[in-house]
Design brief:
Blueprint (H helix, E strand, L loop, with lengths): L17 H10 L3 H14 L3 E3 L59 H12 L3 H13 L10 H11 L6 H11 L12 H12 L5 H18 L3 H8 L3 H11 L23 E6 L2 E6 L7 E3 L2 H11 L2 H45 L1 H6 L10 H8 L3 H8 L3 E4 L2 E4 L7 E3 L5 E3 H14 L8 H10 L6 H10 L5 H4 L3
Parallel strand pairs: 2-5
Antiparallel strand pairs: 1-4, 2-3, 5-6, 7-8
Helix pairs in contact: 1-12, 3-4, 4-6, 7-8, 8-9, 8-10, 11-12, 12-14, 14-15, 17-18
C-alpha cells in the first residue's frame, strides 16, 4: 500500500492586480456602459468628484505642506498633485462638440409587454397566475420551448400550485393570440401557422394554401422539395409560388429578434475618424463623460490628522483609514481611465494607419488583411487587449458607422502571389449568389471554379466556410421554382 507524500514546490504565477482588473473591465465597455460605470463610481466613492458640477478654485496643496507624510502609510502627495493636475483627468479634450450622440430611445421590454397583455386578458386570479408563469417561460425569440409537463412540475414543486397540462394548454392558446403574432409557439411550424391564422380573412387563396403547405408538408417545404408538394396538393407551380410568397413574409423569431425588441438603443460611436484633405484624424468620444478628480475636502481630514494630538489621532484612526481606502479607489479609477483612453486612441490610430485606403475611399475591397496580432505588435500591447477593444467599439466615418472588428480579416493569396483580404472573396461570393439562376443555384464546387477564374485559388471547404459566415444556405436550400 503506497503512502501519501507532501511535496513542496515553487511555481511562478501571474496574478492581476485590482488596478489591472479594473482597467480590463473599463476597456471592454462601450461608451454607454462606460458612462454608467462613472455615474455609479461617483455615487459609490465620495472621494471622487465630477468637476463639471464643482467649479471651485483648487489651491496647490504644496503651498500648505511640502513633503508632508502621515502615519499609517498615508502620503498626501500620492493623491494631491500640482495645481490643476491634482489627480484629475479631463476626458473630453479631444472630441469635437459638433459630434453629438443620438439619445437612447427605450421602451417596455418584450416580457413586460406580454405581462401587460396577460393582465388585460385574464381576470381570474388563478388563470392570471398561470399565464404569468407561462409568459415568463417564453424565451427572448418568442418561443415556449419548455414542455407543458415540465412547467406543471415547476408549479407543483416550486410554487405548490397544482395544475394540469390541459389547463395550461387552454391558457397558452389565449397567450398565442397576443401580439406579436406567433408568440408562445412551441416550434417553427406552429409559429408560422399562428401568424397565418391571424392574417387569414378567408378571401386570400394563397394564405389558405400556405396553411396547408405548413400543416401537412412542413418537412418537404423546409427541404425545398417543391415538386413533391405540387403533386401531393395537386396545385400549379404558380399557386405554390403565391403560397411561398406569403410564408416568406412571416417572422420566424417574433420575440427579441422580431417586431418587439427588448430594448431599442442607438449605437453611439466610440471614435470618429475625420478626413481633412487626406489628413486622417482620430477623435475619442468623451463628450458625455464628466471631468474627474480627487475630492480635495478629504485632504483637509488628512491634514487635521497630521496636526492632531495622539489622543485625537487614536479617535480619528478608523475615519482616516476609510478615507485612505476611498482615495486609493478614486486614484486607481482615474488612472484606469487614463490608461483606457491611451489604449483606445493608440489602437484606433494604428487601425486607421493600417487601413488608410478604406478610410479615404470607403471601398470595402480596399481593406488589407489584418489580424489582432498585427495591431498588437505595432502598438506593443497584448493580443487580448486589442481583442477587448475590437469586440465592443464602433467608429464613425464619412462612409457610415462600423464595428472595429469589421477591419480585421484573414489574408488570401491570389494566383499572382498577392495577398488580399478574405472580405474581397466574400463580396465576390455574395454577388455571385445574388446574380445566380435560382432554379439552378451554384454549388460550392461551382463557386470554387468561379473564384479560380477570377484569380483566387481557394479550396471548396474554404468556400463553404465563407458561405456559412455570410449566412448563405447550401445550393439545395436556395433553389426556387
Amino acid at each position: 500500500m503506497s503512502g501519501f507524500k507532501q511535496i513542496m514546490s515553487h511555481k511562478m504565477m501571474q496574478k492581476l492586480s485590482p488596478q489591472q482588473i479594473q482597467f480590463i473591465k473599463l476597456l471592454q465597455m462601450s461608451t454607454l456602459d462606460f458612462e454608467e460605470k462613472i455615474e455609479l463610481e461617483l455615487l459609490d466613492n465620495p472621494a471622487l468628484d465630477n468637476t463639471d458640477e464643482k467649479e471651485e478654485k483648487v489651491e496647490d496643496p504644496k503651498d500648505d505642506y511640502e513633503d508632508d507624510y502621515l502615519k499609517n502609510d498615508i502620503d498626501i502627495n500620492d493623491y494631491l498633485g500640482d495645481g490643476d493636475e491634482g489627480g484629475g483627468f479631463k476626458l473630453n479634450e479631444d472630441y469635437n462638440e459638433e459630434h453629438k450622440e443620438i439619445p437612447i430611445a427605450s421602451q417596455k421590454s418584450f416580457q413586460e409587454q406580454l405581462v401587460d397583455q396577460a393582465r388585460a386578458a385574464f381576470n381570474n386570479d388563478r388563470e392570471l397566475s398561470l399565464a404569468l408563469h407561462l409568459v415568463n417561460s417564453i424565451e427572448d425569440d418568442g418561443y415556449l420551448r419548455r414542455e407543458l409537463k415540465a412547467i406543471v412540475n415547476d408549479l407543483a414543486f416550486n410554487e405548490n400550485v397544482s395544475a394540469g397540462e390541459d389547463e395550461l394548454e387552454k391558457i397558452l392558446i389565449k397567450i398565442q393570440n397576443f401580439d406579436p403574432p406567433g408568440i408562445g409557439a412551441r416550434d417553427l411550424r406552429e409559429c408560422l401557422l399562428l401568424q397565418l391564422y391571424k392574417k387569414d380573412t378567408g378571401d386570400n387563396p394563397a394564405i389558405d394554401l400556405a396553411e396547408k403547405v405548413l400543416f401537412n408538408h412542413m418537412e418537404s417545404f423546409t427541404k425545398k422539395h417543391y415538386q413533391k408538394i405540387i403533386r401531393s396538393l395537386k396545385i400549379t407551380e404558380e399557386e405554390l409560388k403565391a403560397a411561398i410568397a406569403e410564408i416568406v413574409k412571416l417572422n420566424p423569431k417574433p420575440g427579441g429578434l422580431g417586431q418587439v425588441q427588448a430594448k431599442t438603443q442607438y449605437i453611439i460611436p466610440d471614435f470618429t475618424v475625420l478626413n481633412e484633405e487626406g489628413e486622417l484624424t482620430v477623435l475619442l468620444n468623451g463628450r458625455n463623460t464628466p471631468d474627474l478628480r480627487v475630492n480635495r475636502s478629504y485632504s483637509e481630514t488628512l491634514k487635521s490628522y497630521d496636526l492632531a494630538s495622539k489622543k485625537e489621532k487614536d479617535r480619528m484612526k478608523d475615519s482616516v483609514q476609510y478615507i485612505k481606502q476611498k482615495l486609493d479607489g478614486a486614484k486607481w479609477f482615474i488612472d484606469s481611465i487614463k490608461q483606457r483612453k491611451n489604449t483606445l486612441i493608440t489602437t484606433m490610430e494604428e487601425i486607421v494607419k493600417q487601413q488608410r485606403q478604406f478610410f479615404l475611399e470607403g471601398d470595402e475591397t480596399a481593406l488589407r488583411p489584418m489580424i489582432l496580432k498585427d495591431i498588437a505588435e505595432k502598438v506593443d500591447l497584448d493580443i487580448s487587449t486589442i481583442s477587448r477593444v475590437a469586440n465592443s467599439k464602433f467608429v464613425e466615418t464619412e462612409f457610415g458607422m462600423f464595428a472595429l472588428k469589421f477591419f480585421f480579416s484573414e489574408g488570401v493569396a491570389t494566383t499572382d502571389g498577392e495577398e488580399v483580404s478574405n472580405r474581397e472573396i466574400k463580396k465576390i461570393l455574395n454577388n455571385a449568389v445574388d446574380a445566380e439562376n435560382k432554379r439552378k443555384p451554384y454549388t460550392d464546387e461551382a463557386l470554387m471554379k468561379l473564384l479560380k477564374e477570377k484569380g483566387y485559388s481557394i479550396a471548396r471547404r474554404t468556400v463553404a466556410k465563407y458561405r456559412e459566415q455570410l449566412n448563405i444556405p447550401v445550393a439545395r436550400l436556395r433553389k426556387e421554382i
